[in-house]
Structure formats: structure tokens, C-alpha cells
């Protein structure tokens, strides 16, 4: 099964670089993103989202929303 998409911008976790279109298998990259600049920030975007989710989990554990 070929899981590589031929469109969009991706951040390859294997090579630590941005890819456009077909590249490494999707399971080895993050995306797709709308543009190269956003794909280049993929790790930062993921870290920010993880922090937000951790904060939400803490609020919910404390009985807040």
C-alpha cells in the first residue's frame, strides 16, 4: 500500500526537513500543511498543541473546564 500523497507540504521526521508532494511515507512525516513556512514550524506547532492539551487535562482533573 502506498501511503504517500503527491500534494501539500510536509515535515519529514526521518530527515528533519520540509518536503513538498511525494516524499517519505506519510507515517514518517507530519502534515500536510498549506505552505512551506507552516511545514517548517511543524515541531513547534505540535509542541504548542501538546502544551495546550496538557493544560486542558490539568483543568479537567481539577474539576474546571
TrEMBL record:
Region of interest called Disordered, as start-end residue ranges on this chain: 46-65
Biased composition (Basic and acidic residues): 48-65
Superkingdom of this protein's organism: Bacteria
Name of the featured protein: SPOR domain-containing protein
Origin species: Nocardiopsis tropica
